[in-house]
Amino acid sequence: KTTEAVQSQMDELKTKYSHQNHSLLEIIHSSLNVELVNGILIGIGKAIASSKGIVAEKDTKTNAKELSKRKIKHSLSDNDVQEFLEVHGDKTSIIGKMSFTVTEFAPQIFKSIRDSDGLMVDEILSSLSLQHNRQAIFSAEESQGKSGSFFFFSENGRYLIKTINDEEKSVLLNQLLPDYSSHLFNTNDSLIAFIYGVYQISIDGMKALSVILMQNTIQYQKPEEILGGGSSGIHPYQEKLLKVFDLKGSTVQRKAKGDDIKASTALKDLDFVAQGIDLDLSDEQKDRLARCIYHDAKLLEKHGLMDYSLLLAIVERVPSKKKRAGDGTAKLVAEESNEEEDGDIVDAGRRADLEKGPMKFFVGLAKLAMKRKSRNMIISRSGKYVYHIGIIDYLQWFNKFKYIESKYKSIVYFKNAKFVSAVDPVSYSNRFINFMWKVVLDFKYA
């Protein structure tokens, strides 16, 4: 009877929290979704382009409330509509026929985050342009998350656009953002997947849709994609995705389901333990990761957040035969690359030569890109593997629904109550840290 009563309460809360007008969410999962995704890309691109005139703001502690409440509204111009029509023709039912606006939240803070991560406006615009995302846009309908949220990965794999609900947006803007941005600026070494912007998509007569622009923590592009060498660049190695793990530190029902397990399938905590994964990391690398995990988890705990995951991708590096060189920069960097843990891609002796003359711009671009990647990318001691590591899905507040879920599961899984996924933020962070340190990193600490 107790279990039935808790289940009833849980169902009531679920209905309460999920009751909303799903107009745009329904569209984004329908045949019109290609059209809406195009509009989202154009709108976010317009907001990013306008950020050139925004003064970045890192002093988020001083006037955090004011900065987090600031917003800028962007409406699609005739030129924006024309760009869309070039892709879809004149048979549109949303873009060009209805008022389509994108509201950008906390623009100064997120510009600072983008700047601190070495992002350049033109690079973001290129990554999100319609011309460079044709295939990704037309396959967007396949990108639906388990929770009903919508994901869009840019075709070059660098960025992720994801829908968030009202509670997640409120948690981020009204609660987490000041400490979050300060944490990223001051530590300069965090595994948290960076959020580069928060946007609200509005169309006349429909409930608005909120999205975030994020860093994709699993990036293993070819060298010429970073260096601008084009298809003629040299590949010092090829990369093959072996496994992906979504780890929470919970061991109750944390196992991948189904028989069709692919390299890209998100395996879970029990899979990691059962497969006896042993990461090839030095003591220094383990120490750095352990410190990041601790400080990141404690930040999320402070703001009542839980249910986040450590996303771990294991990629194998296979040396490839050199064929032909592209431009001079690509050739020098590829042939003489000496990748270090701090993200530099050229050894000290060659760096001085490369940073002179016309190649300076391209090497600078490469170093910025590798710096951004090195935060979440670690090369194994042997050099055979690359580990992509990031903390994701960290906007879940321990609300009433999660509280009831925690109580319900503690009854159902009485003997393993402390290992269920839904627990309070303090218990969650402590268990998360303990599991990542002991099981994932095999970290020896005093």
Verbal overview:
The protein has 446 residues and is α+β, with helices and mostly antiparallel strands. Helices cover 43% and strands 16% of the residues. It has helices at 2-18, 23-28, 33-50, 64-69, 78-88, 107-116, 121-128, 134-138, 166-187, 223-227, 269-274, 283-302, 328-335, 348-354, 360-374, 400-412, 425-440, and strands at 71-75, 100-105, 151-153, 159-164, 195-203, 209-215, 237-247, 266-267, 309-319, 377-379, 385-392. The strands form 2 sheets. It has a 6-stranded antiparallel β-sheet with strand order 1-2-5-6-4-3. A 5-stranded mixed β-sheet has the order 8-7-9-11-10. The protein is globular and about 60 Å long. The termini are far apart.
Give the helices and strands, then pairings.
Blueprint: H1 2-18, H2 23-28, H3 33-50, H4 64-69, E1 71-75, H5 78-88, E2 100-105, H6 107-116, H7 121-128, H8 134-138, E3 151-153, E4 159-164, H9 166-187, E5 195-203, E6 209-215, H10 223-227, E7 237-247, E8 266-267, H11 269-274, H12 283-302, E9 309-319, H13 328-335, H14 348-354, H15 360-374, E10 377-379, E11 385-392, H16 400-412, H17 425-440
Parallel strand pairs: 7-8
Antiparallel strand pairs: 1-2, 2-5, 3-4, 4-6, 5-6, 7-9, 9-11, 10-11
Poorly predicted tracts of residues: 16-23, 222-234, 323-369
Number of strands: 11
Alpha carbon gyration radius = 23 Å
**For the report, how would you describe the main beta sheet?**
6 strands, antiparallel
Overall pLDDT level = 75
List the strand order in the largest sheet: 1-2-5-6-4-3
The shape is: globular
What share of the residues lie within helices? Answer: 40-55%
Q: How many DSSP H or I helices?
A: 17
- Structural class designation: alpha+beta
Q: Give, in order, the helices and strands.
A: HHHHEHEHHHEEHEEHEEHHEHHHEEHH
Sheet-strand content, in percent, reads 15-25%
Q: Distance between termini?
A: 47 Å
